[in-house]
Structure formats: structure tokens, C-alpha cells
Amino acid sequence: MSRTSTRRRRMWTAVGIVTILMAAIAGGVTYVKFFRELPAPYFASDEEHFLFGSTGTEAEQGVPYWIWLVLPRIFPEYLPRPGGYAALGILGKDGHEMPVGLSKVTVGFPRVGINCAVCHTARWREKPGDVPTIVPAAPAHQTGEQEYLRFLLACASDPRFNASTILGEISRNYRLSALDRILYRFAIIPFTRRGLLRMKRDSQWMEGRTEWGRGRIDPFNPVKFSILRQPVDQTIGNSDMVPLWNLKRHEGMAFHWDGMNPNLKEVVLSSALGDGATRRWVDRDMRKWDNTDPRQMSSLRRIQNYISDVQPPKYPFAVNAPAAQQGQAIFDSACAACHAFGGARTGTVIPAAEIGTDRHRIDMWTSGSVAAYNEYGEGHDWDFSAFRKTDGYVSVPLDGLWLRAPYLHNGSVPSITDLLEPPERRPKQFWRGYDVYDPVKVGFVTSGPDAEREGTLHDTSRPGNGNAGHLYGIDLPAESKRALIEYLKTQ
Ligand code: HEC
Ligand code: HEC
């Protein structure tokens, strides 16, 4: 072999080694900066874990933290009014960096995902000037989930969603390192924009269908179309948010408004998946299911334990005790069979023809979706088997009833007083989402300038918004209704 060819070979070997080294460094940087997942922040109390902890939604569905932070400042016009994310009914709590229901985890870079509390934590006040009370596990009647999604999508569709605008705004708050600035400029910002625009295409089906409004979502159509790959149909599944308290006492009952699954663990796991957790994350979390050390245990198990035991707050206003006692007798004869713990039909699916409420939510859930969900976890330890198709709505226990307003599966009746009226006398239009409570009608205030400013209009003539059916107690004399309402306050 000649000397030149040996030298050339050595040179190429050196080039090869340098290339491999550079690739390894680049690979290492890519891994650390884009994919390395740091442990989720630990919260000492189960309540804080529920409010702020991670349920694995950050990696795929999360928004980069610094982008998330500056969007309301760059695009305030896409929010209903000033105030940042709070204008969407997203709740802040003193002493916490993140709002309730939004979790922050570093997967390469800090990302913001949602957790259970964004839909399962409420706020209420007695008077407009009062400091609001936040109630974990209560239905989030004030939150505009669809508005939050639409806000992110509107930002991504705006030409100002670009590196110079976003990095300029970030630099007013925080000094990113030179390497991070390069990564944000050339990768994270354009990828985020592309991801959000993809989400916009995937959620095109929402357009033209009845708005969710405050305190409601269409929880299963996104799962059907995006996760279970079911064909897009014309159904409307708008559902009122539900409370997650006291679930140990709900054991054996059907969960979800239509009773689609009676197994709490499956409902908890599928909720996390539906909100954007990956199957891989759920696999990892399930391996820790039986660990009892709060620092090591499964996040979802910790949440399941919490919602099994946490109790609803008592009705905070005066109750007329003698009237409530009379009301109990009326409840026992007219309602208890379907609503009292231990009632013969409590927690079961009451056929649609019998209950007579708006049936859109029932028809949204198809037998194709049932089969697909029961197959979705095949090969995983948590494989689902309890999803089913029903034809009715569950006669839910009424624990914490005062905070479940507005009422029925689609939130179509603002107060208990209205629910005891015949459908034609129930309000046809009202505003949902305002947090001042009305102890006279027993529900939130749903009219007047404040409610109209803070809430969204519920129009019962829109598909999926109907307020018919559930005719129990409507013919009672006024005096008996008053007594029954006093009793219902104590539930
Ligand atoms: C984006 C809003 C949203 C998020 C996030 C969310 N849920 Fe829900 N959840 C709902 C709605 C709405 C329902 C009622 C759905 C229906 O049946 O139509 C519901 C129903 C439930 C139920 C059934 C309760 C009953 O009594 O029937 C359970 C349990 C539950 N969710 C647990 C969770 C857990 C655990 C998480 C977090 C891992 C979670 N949810 C996250 C909106 C949400
Ligand atoms: C035959 C069973 C049955 C009887 C009797 C019955 N209900 Fe119901 N109730 C249901 C069902 C089913 C639902 C859910 C319907 C829906 O959301 O579309 C419901 C829903 C409710 C809700 C709304 C709960 C929420 O979280 O939004 C209230 C309040 C209520 N019932 C009160 C009463 C009262 C008061 C009586 C007695 C006067 C009564 N019900 C009698 C079956 C019954």
C-alpha cells in the first residue's frame, strides 16, 4: 500500500470519528433539549397534586412554557377580555406558579399540559366584591375549554406567531441561553406552530356545531375522532362538567352521564388518555400503581385515592331546618329511588324514553367507539374492557348538589328552582360561567350585566342544549317545592 493511500485512509478515519462525535454531541443535545423528561414536580398534599400535578399530558399535547406564558401578552385580542388566561375562567391560586389545572413538566424544555383540575375544580362567591372560594373536585362551571383551545389555535394562525415576536416578548421576562434562543428560533417555535395548526385541522369538526360554552366540553368526540380513529360523524356530545368527590360511595354505580363505564379505574385512566397522556406514560404510571410512598406512587392512583375520599363542601348559606325536614319526606317519596344512596335505581342508567332529556349526548357514543376503546389498550397491563353503549342517562347521586349547577347532563337548567318547573317554564336563554351564587334559586347567577360579561350564552334551542324532560316534582304545590328545595340544599 502506498504512503499516500495510508495517509488518506487515516484522514478519512479521523473525519469519520469527528463526524460520529459531532453526531453524538448533536444527538445528546437533541435528546437533552427536546426529549429528556425530568421528574414531574412533587406536591406534598394530595389536593395540591390534584390541582397542579402532572397526568402525563405535557410530552405530546403540551405547549412550551415560555411560549404559553407570552401568548396572552402578544395576542390579547383573541381573549374575551383583558386578564390573560383568567379571562377564560382558568383559576389562579396564591403561592403557585401555575394556574389550577395546568401542569408544568420538562420534556427537553418546560411544557404546559392540562390535568383533571382544569375541568374538575370550581369557583364561587357570595357577592361580586368577595374573594372567590376555590373548590377542588367540584365541576368547573366557569372554565371555557373550547375558548382556551381556540385561543391557542388563533395565535398559531396569526403571522405574528413567529420567532422574533415571541422571542422578543420572552426576553422581557426571562433570559434564555444563547443555545436555547437558537433552539426556540429554529425548532421549538416553528414546531409548536405546526403542531397547533395540525390540531386546528384535527378539530375542524367542531365548527358549525353547538358551542360548548363555559363549564362544558364535548369530551368524547375528540377521543372518537383523534384517538380511536372513528369516522367523523355529525353528533354533538356536549356535557356539563361533573364533580369528582366522594367517589368511594359511588362504587358500583355507572360513571359518565350515559353510564358508559362502571369501572372507576378505567374511567380515571381513560380520562388521562383522553386529555393527552400517552400510552407510554400510562404504562409507566401503572407500574407504580401499588406503590404507597406518595413520592414514588402512580400519579393517577394518587388522584383516584383523592377523589374517592374528598367530600363536597356543605351548603354555605342558611337552611330553614323545619322546612328541610318536610322536604325530606317529599324527596323520599318522589326522588329517593333514583337519587338517594341505596336507592333501588340510584346510579343506574334510566332509559332515554323514560327520562326524556336531550338525547344528543347519548347518540354521540357509538358501538364502534365502544369496540375501539376496548381494543385501544390491547397488549398493555391496563387494557380496557368495561366500555359499553347505553341508551339513557345515569340517575346521579346528588351529593354536593348546590355546586353542581347548572343542572342536567348538558347543563341546560340553571337552578334547582327551574328544574322543578315544567320545561316550557324553564329559562330558554341564560349565561353560564359567572361565579356569584344565588341562594334563592339555588344555582349560579345567570343574568344581568356581570353574568353576561363573564359568561357564555346557553340557548336551549340549539342542538344538544335542550332543557326538556326530567318531569319529577314539577306538579308539586309551591309550598312543597320550597320544602323540597330546602332539603336539597343539605345534599
Ligand atoms: C377537559 C375537561 C376534563 C378533564 C381535563 C378531565 N375531565 Fe373528567 N370529566 C369531564 C366531563 C365533561 C365529564 C362528564 C363526561 C360525560 O359523561 O359526558 C367527566 C367525567 C369524569 C368522571 C365520571 C364521574 C361520574 O361520576 O360519572 C370521572 C371519574 C372523571 N371525569 C375523572 C377524571 C380524571 C381522573 C381526570 C384527569 C386524569 C379527568 N377526569 C380529566 C371533563 C374532564
Ligand atoms: C326515574 C328516576 C328519577 C327520579 C324519580 C328523579 N330523577 Fe333526578 N335525575 C334522573 C336522571 C336519569 C338524571 C340525569 C338526567 C340528565 O342529565 O339528562 C337526573 C338528574 C337530576 C338532577 C341534576 C343533577 C346534576 O348534577 O345536574 C337533579 C338536581 C335531580 N335529578 C333532582 C331530582 C329530584 C329533586 C327528584 C324528585 C322530585 C328527582 N330528581 C327524581 C333520574 C330521576
Structure description:
The protein is mainly α and 491 residues long. The protein has 19 helices and 13 strands. It has helices at residues 3-35, 46-52, 58-61, 65-74, 145-157, 163-171, 178-202, 220-227, 264-274, 279-286, 299-309, 321-334, 336-339, 352-355, 360-364, 367-376, 416-419, 449-454, 478-489; strands at 63-64, 102-107, 109-114, 121-124, 133-136, 216-217, 239-240, 349-351, 392-394, 429-432, 437-438, 443-444, 456-459. The strands form 6 sheets. Strands 1-3-2 form a 3-stranded antiparallel sheet. A hairpin with a 1-residue loop joins β2 (102-107) and β3. The protein binds heme C (2 copies).
Topology at a glance:
Blueprint: H1 3-35, H2 46-52, H3 58-61, E1 63-64, H4 65-74, E2 102-107, E3 109-114, E4 121-124, E5 133-136, H5 145-157, H6 163-171, H7 178-202, E6 216-217, H8 220-227, E7 239-240, H9 264-274, H10 279-286, H11 299-309, H12 321-334, H13 336-339, E8 349-351, H14 352-355, H15 360-364, H16 367-376, E9 392-394, H17 416-419, E10 429-432, E11 437-438, E12 443-444, H18 449-454, E13 456-459, H19 478-489
Antiparallel strand pairs: 1-3, 2-3, 4-5, 6-7, 8-9, 10-13, 11-12
The structure holds heme C (2 copies).
One heme C binds next to helix 13, strand 9 and helix 17.
Task: Output the keywords.
491 residues, mainly alpha, 9% strand, two-stranded antiparallel ribbon, 3-stranded antiparallel beta sheet, binds heme C, 40% helix
Shape: elongated
Q: Major sheet: order of its strands? A: 1-3-2
Estimated share of beta-strand residues: 5-15%
**Bound ligands, each once:** heme C
How many helical elements? 19
Provide the low-confidence segments as ranges: none
Distance between the termini: 94 Å
Mean residue pLDDT: 95
Share of helix, binned: 40-55%
The major β-sheet equals: 3 strands, antiparallel
Structural class: mainly alpha
Radius of gyration: 26 Å
